[in-house]
């Protein structure tokens, strides 16, 4: 199989550590307001609302809404469980922007830098454009473009998201590779004809609670983005 | 008026010198094929087809087509006029990609670098995503995102293009500024509520044949992108 021309990256979990970052951000924002809670449990609870929130768009029940809007809706759902219903609007807006302030895994920035020397690279995430732009600034990621859900008008794993990314770069699906820490994402990309690479992030959901292996057939498995650069000669 | 949070850039003419670049690219590609022609006239002729080509999309006569497709269609229209009808498919494909290989004005790369320190920056061009990504690589432009026609699904000066760019960054139009060398672009942006900055590129269409002044009310006039950075404290 020839090397791809473009690499598409899942972001949440694959490139950035959303769980520890959301826990840190929530602690930083809410401690001064006198709140004490299980910060990691808060991050997990918020993330648990993620797939159901997007499913309403995927199913066609509601028109496409940016992930910022879905995150805010999901935040409202979990605030009562953590005794946070007295947060004012400004605090809720700021807390919702925690998703714009996630930190990359240690290999992400140097790995992407190497990979970009040889390939076009873009996030193909369910995160919206502003969210991706803020993560890029925070972590010094340099993308060729921000593709994914907002450009496609639907959410992964719908085929349209992968295919619209290939089309935006003008490449056939077989000339593009999806890189993700989630077998489901890669299974959907492969069904669209993309090459696939699995990056295990075994601690994504807490120690030992990430996907250690893809559980589906993939073209590459690399332990991190630097190892993927090695494997692809970048 | 408070400073904007995001700057949107017209690209063809404002950030890159399409005329000299297309002439150079065409000469480089076609001279080895034994062709001799007025290279600048060829560039002008190709560009003259630009607005009519997009108008079919704007009017709703045809569905949205990427600028690469429109450029190719326009190329076919002008080939007979320059005695180029014997070009094979590979040469036509390569020639069409000349638009992906345009060079920036001398102030563009350093100016954008300074402006990005203070503002989110994005192209809001009629060029498609792959074209913008290739120009960014060639000229070392670092954008926060690639916005514009392909993301909006329509062509400037339709309001949807400006407004969708503001929405992608999550900013009100008044917090965004359109930067262009063309009064018509700025007039349309201002009508959508954006701030505006005019950059004269007096030689865009040949010596003395660019717009020396905007001809419409604008918020800033700066002689180049470095002067705009000065004016905006970046």
Structure description:
The structure is a homodimer of 234-residue chains. Chain A is of the alpha/beta class and 234 residues long. Chain A folds into two domains: 6-17 and 104-231, Rossmann fold, CATH 3.40.50; 18-100, DNA polymerase, domain 1. The first copy, chain A, contains eleven helices and six strands. Chain A has a six-stranded parallel β-sheet with strand order 3-2-1-4-5-6. In chain A, helix 1 crosses helix 2 (39-48). Chain A is globular. The model of chain A has no long low-confidence stretch (mean pLDDT 97). The A-B interface holds A 68, 120, 128-130, 132-133, 136-137, 142, 144-147, 150-151, 168-170 and B 68, 120, 128-130, 132-133, 136-137, 142, 144-147, 150-151, 168-170.
């Amino acid at each position: 199989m020839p090397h791809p021309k473009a690499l598409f990256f899942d972001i949440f979990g694959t490139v950035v550590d959303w769980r520890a970052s959301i826990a840190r951000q929530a602690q930083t924002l809410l401690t001064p307001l006198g709140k004490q809670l299980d910060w990691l449990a808060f991050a997990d609870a918020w993330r648990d609302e993620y797939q159901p929130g997007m499913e309403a768009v995927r199913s066609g029940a509601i028109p496409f809404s940016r992930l910022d809007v879905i995150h805010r809706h999901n935040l409202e759902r979990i605030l009562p469980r953590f005794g946070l219903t007295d947060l004012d609007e400004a605090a809720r807006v700021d807390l919702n922007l925690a998703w714009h302030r996630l930190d990359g895994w240690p290999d992400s920035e140097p790995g992407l830098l190497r990979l970009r020397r040889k390939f076009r690279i873009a996030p193909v995430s369910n995160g919206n454009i502003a969210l991706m732009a803020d993560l890029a600034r925070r972590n010094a990621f340099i993308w060729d473009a921000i593709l994914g859900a907002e450009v496609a008008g639907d959410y992964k794993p719908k085929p349209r998201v992968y295919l619209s990314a290939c089309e935006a770069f003008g490449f056939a699906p077989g000339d593009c590779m999806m890189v993700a820490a989630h077998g489901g994402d890669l299974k959907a990309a492969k069904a669209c004809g993309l090459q696939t690479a699995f990056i295990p992030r075994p601690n994504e959901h807490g120690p030992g609670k990430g996907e250690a292996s893809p559980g589906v057939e993939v073209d590459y498995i690399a332990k991190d983005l630097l190892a993927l650069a090695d494997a692809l000669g970048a």
